[in-house]
Write a structure and sequence with these properties.
binds NADP nicotinamide-adenine-dinucleotide phosphate, alpha/beta, globular, Rossmann fold, about 230 residues, 6 helices, seven-stranded parallel sheet
Amino acid sequence: MTKTVVITGANRGIGFELVKCYLANGDWQIIAACRTPQKATALNDLADATDGDIEVVQLDVSSAQSVEAFSKAIGDRPIDILVNNAGVIGGEHQSLGDIDYDEWMETLSINTLGPIRVTEALIENIRKSKNGKIVAISSQLGAMQYQTQGRFAYNSSKAALNRTMTLLANQLRAENIAVAMYHPGWVQTDMGGQAADITPPQSASGLYQCFEKLSLADSGKFFKWNGEPHAW
Ligand SMILES: NC(=O)c1ccc[n+]([C@@H]2O[C@H](COP(=O)([O-])OP(=O)(O)OC[C@H]3O[C@@H](n4cnc5c(N)ncnc54)[C@H](OP(=O)(O)O)[C@@H]3O)[C@@H](O)[C@H]2O)c1
């Protein structure tokens, strides 16, 4: 039976590669959410080349209005997995003495509140799946054990995302909905830069396999893209 996946930030980087993985790996209906569909050329081309397997739908995860319109566009069909991938690095002014607080708020709105906004809007759809899953692309930079300096906005947004997702996991366990967070690796995308360790296809195929394996027993946990547990 065809299953349905929603992927946010699906027009480029890791999100776009995840779309390709779902397309290649099974019988999936793919709802590819992106901020500006009219500019999502590669994604639109891929969608046009399939037989309706990919639906491109507008979604700005930081806008309540956009999230509501997205939810209306999806309707009441079951969603088997929500992949909260959309994110931003958060601007240039993130270190002591040079903090842009408006940028920090915007980063939190996208990276931390965004996944929860989208989850809240789609929870009834996820409840309709027999085996619903909610995953978030987090970062090692949100882990307390990862020693680093600077990037207050980005790192704090991912730390808060992780904590929020663990609360969500606890709340949804009794409903058989699994929730997990993933560090995607340091990936060669616009965000990661070309010097990064791994390619988007490597990251996305590892993540896809992790999502497929995710069960209630692992709900609330933090993993690396290759399935290894991640330290908090
Ligand atoms: N690359 C890495 O090394 C790395 C490492 C750790 C974690 N991550 C995480 O992995 C995820 C994907 O990153 P990436 O490397 O693929 O980054 P990317 O190439 O910069 O792509 C980011 C994606 O997020 C979308 N996005 C940003 N703000 C949005 C909003 N308000 N609403 C909807 N979509 C929005 C972007 O859409 P537009 O095209 O419209 O801007 C784009 O599709 C992020 O959550 C990131 O924090 C990445």
